[in-house]
Amino acid sequence: MATFGAVYDACVLYPAPIRDLLIRLARTGLFRAHWTHHIHEEWMRALKRQRPDIDEEKLDRLRRMMDSAVPDCLVTGYEPLIENLRLPDADDRHVLAAAIKSGAAVIVTTNLKDFPADALSEFDIEAQHPDEFVRHLCDLGMGAVLRVVQEQRQDLKSPPKTPEELLETFLANGLPETVSALRPFLASL
After folding, report:
1. How confident is the model over 37-66, as pLDDT tens digits?
2. CA separation for the pair 130, 72 (Å, rounded)
3. What is the average per-residue pLDDT within 162-167?
4. In the β-sheet with 126-128, what is the strand arrangement from edge to edge?
5. What is the pLDDT averaged over residues 9-31?
6. How many C-beta atoms surround the C-beta of residue 17 within 10 A?
7. pLDDT > 90: percent of the chain
8. d(Cα 121, Cα 49) in Å, to the nearest integer?
9. Please, which residues have CB within 8 angstroms of residue 174's CB and are 6 or more apart in sequence?
10. Are 133 and 108 in contact (CB under 8 A)?
11. Which of 83, 72, 80 has its CA nearest to residue 35?
12. Which three-class secondary structure state does DSSP give residue 33?
């Protein structure tokens, strides 16, 4: 059974390769993944800015699939906590509030400067870049991580990717430590 929780910030749910990896990892039982409707709205807005052509129904379907893929992922009732929290960017307080409410130990984000250790430490929460987070998961359960990456690669059809191409995708999306950890297992991906 998972012993710690992690809240995914919107910035790690877009781009798609990282979102896919993190959602799949959330199903391993190594940890409990959480997010909120507000976090959904943020990553969906970011995607719409980059891809205005994307169909709203497709985004809603993806949101529903994410929510159904990860049991107990949605955090609710965190809103009363927001007002009293202090972060460099007040717009990020909802993420910290969700982490507090869910009992998460980690906020997975690429915006580390917006979640400084001194603001999180009183809640026993740590902000981690997705690369650091996945690398720690490799240490916790490399077999589970390898199965997830293999499954992710096998599910890519349009276009399909070789193991090396998938690792290059991870590298291009800011996961060099993860790629270094996975590279020795390339043949099994």
Report:
1. 999 999 999 999 999 999 999 999 999 999
2. 21
3. 97
4. 32-34, 5-8, 106-108, 126-128
5. 96
6. 16
7. 96
8. 34
9. 18, 110, 129, 130, 131
10. yes
11. 72
12. strand
Q: Is the pLDDT of residue 169 over 60?
A: yes
pLDDT value at residue 3: 78
Domains and CATH numbers, the chain: 5-130 (3.40.50.1010), 133-188 (no CATH)
Q: 2: pLDDT confidence band, cut at 50, 70 and 90?
A: low
- Taking the chain, what is the end-to-end CA distance rounded to the nearest angstrom? 25
| Sequence-separated (6 or more) residues with CB below 8 Å from residue 141 | 28, 30
Distance CA 168, CA 157 (A): 17
Q: Which two tokens stand for residue 55?
A: 């169909």
Token pair, residue 140, equals 């916790």
Asked whether the predicted pLDDT for residue 1 surpasses 70, the reply is: no
What would the two tokens of residue 151 be?
A: 């499954």
| pTM metric for this prediction | 0.96
Residues 6+ positions from 110 with CB-CB distance below 8 Å: 9, 11, 12, 129, 130, 174
Cis peptide before 159 (omega within 30 of 0): yes
Environment class of residue 118 by beta-carbon count within 10 Å: exposed (0-12), middle (13-18) or buried (19+)? Answer: exposed
Give the strand pairing for 106-108 and 126-128: parallel
